[in-house]
Design brief:
Order of helices and strands: HHHHHHHHHHHHHHHHHHHHHH
Number of helices: 22
CATH class: Mainly Alpha
Helix content: over 70%
Number of strands: 0
Distance between the termini: 46 Å
Strand content: under 5%
CATH topology: Amino acid/polyamine transporter I
């Protein structure tokens, strides 16, 4: 009787699917992918095969084999030791610090439609708005204010699902009425020229849309009949994400030419044109508020998570004991303040690029590259562990045993390596101030963001013993 009751309490197919899809599906990513027109269909499918599916399978097996809390740190540490595990944590944390300004710029850019739409191209407005919002959320979280599951669901429903359905519906109506469109659905346009670098650059924007799925797969041990349920949920998740992201991005691309598309507020641009054409411009403020609700919901959900990840490194002695402090609300307050300063520095990217679009792409590219390096460690750790150790009985195993896991890891590594290589090339649709200006800025950014891990290692090596206890 008790066993049956516990089985009922486990996660089923639909909740698991919604959990995984909700972890990474986002309306914010649509403009960056819309930039590449109908070619995004091909690259979305390619990215799903080379990255999304391998990530889901490998992270689920790792979570099942290592059910203790710790995620990427435990997985990489088990394979390569504590130092490499801390490096993986650092890459996950610093990637999030670079991701915040892109999400915040999306919020700030969307809000301009309630103030003055011209502000979306004002770099100083964007920086000021980003800093005010982020520091405000940080100070709020110092008091332990966290979004509940109900608030998160509310934000996802009204800020992502409904706007996504609306813009796809508006685009379908636009095409049924035979209005002019900016892209062409021909085989020649859908299949890219694989020899042109600019075609492959769309993978950067698409991979950004797929980051973070491993955070949801840690629930695999709580899935009812995981060996059957998880693969089905994964297929449904891939289908939901692919359909919503492809259709949503195409909805923007059919009405806004790529040279006019603003990466920060492209979703609002598209809504504005559709609604104006249908004489529904009066509803625009409602749409903007809904998108803002979704943006704030996403920010609140993610604010403390990276701080807790870095706290693991602090508790292992890689950071001063000063940063291990938790306030009376059990919040790592000093790490929260420290990461707010890091995000503030990341916002300076808006000053080094010639326009807001270029800054947004630079930060998106940096964030994606750092996360890809972390995924390289994850796939290598999974391959190493399955090769060196026997598979333990667990809730889920990749079909095909050890060979299936090794092949899946290899496919995922290929996807990561391709993304890392093309990440150094800027898209021609965006004015980035010249190829070498972007290359130098991007490379320096990678070095600056990864280099601090050496300081963590040195601190662990030379810190007084009493600081480690």
């Amino acid at each position: 009787m008790l066993k049956d009751k516990l089985a009922i309490q486990k996660i089923g197919l639909i909740p698991l699917t919604l959990l995984m899809a909700g972890a990474i599906d986002s309306i914010r990513n649509l403009p960056a992918t819309a930039l590449f027109g109908t070619q995004l269909i091909f690259f979305f499918i390619l990215a799903a095969v080379l990255f999304l599916i391998p990530t889901a399978l490998v992270s689920a097996e790792l979570a099942a084999q290592h059910p203790q809390s710790g995620g990427i740190f435990i997985w990489v540490k088990s394979a390569f030791g504590e130092r490499v595990g801390v490096l993986a944590i650092w890459l996950q944390w610093i990637n999030t610090m670079i991701w915040y300004p892109t999400m915040l710029s999306f919020i700030a850019g969307t809000a301009t439609y309630l103030i003055d739409p011209q502000l979306v191209n004002n770099k100083f407005y964007m920086i000021s708005a980003i800093l005010i919002v982020f520091w405000g959320l940080t100070l709020a979280n110092l008091r332990g204010i966290k979004s509940s599951a109900n608030i998160a669901s509310f934000g996802a429903l009204f800020g992502m699902i409904i706007p996504m359905i609306l813009i796809i519906g508006l685009a379908v109506t636009w095409m049924l009425l035979k209005n002019p469109i900016e892209i062409h659905f021909t085989v020649k346009n859908i299949l890219p020229n694989v020899h042109k670098t600019n075609s492959w650059i769309s993978l950067t924007a698409i991979m950004t849309s797929f980051l973070g799925l491993e955070l949801a797969t840690v629930h695999v041990n709580h899935v009812n009949n995981a060996q059957k349920t998880f693969p089905r949920a994964m297929l449904l998740t891939v289908g939901i994400i692919a359909i919503t992201m492809i259709c949503g991005a195409l909805a923007i691309a059919i009405i806004i030419p790529s040279h006019q598309l603003n990466l920060v507020d492209g979703i609002v641009q598209a809504f504005q044109r559709f609604l104006s054409a249908y004489h529904l411009a009066w509803s625009m403020p409602i749409i903007v508020v809904m998108i803002l609700i979704g943006g704030f919901g996403g920010m609140i959900n993610w604010l403390i998570s990276p701080a807790m990840g870095l706290l693991q490194a602090a508790e292992l002695g890689y950071l001063p004991k000063f940063l291990q402090y938790r306030n009376k609300y059990d919040v790592p307050s000093r790490i929260l303040i420290a990461q707010a300063f890091v995000v503030s520095l990341a916002c300076l990217a808006f000053l080094f690029m010639p326009n807001v679009n270029a800054s947004y792409w630079l930060l998106t590219d940096l964030s994606t590259q750092l996360y890809m390096f972390m995924y390289v460690f994850m796939f290598c750790a999974a391959a190493f562990l399955v090769y060196r150790t026997a598979l333990k009985p667990a809730a889920f195993h990749i079909p095909g045993g050890k060979l299936g896991t090794l092949i899946t890891c290899l496919v995922g590594l290929v996807g990561c390596i391709i993304t890392i290589i093309i990440g150094f090339k800027p898209p021609t649709q965006i004015d980035v101030g010249g190829f070498w200006h972007y290359e130098v800025t991007f490379t320096i950014g990678i070095v600056i963001l990864v280099a601090p891990i050496c300081l963590l290692y040195l601190y662990k090596m030379f810190a007084p013993k009493k600081a480690l206890t």
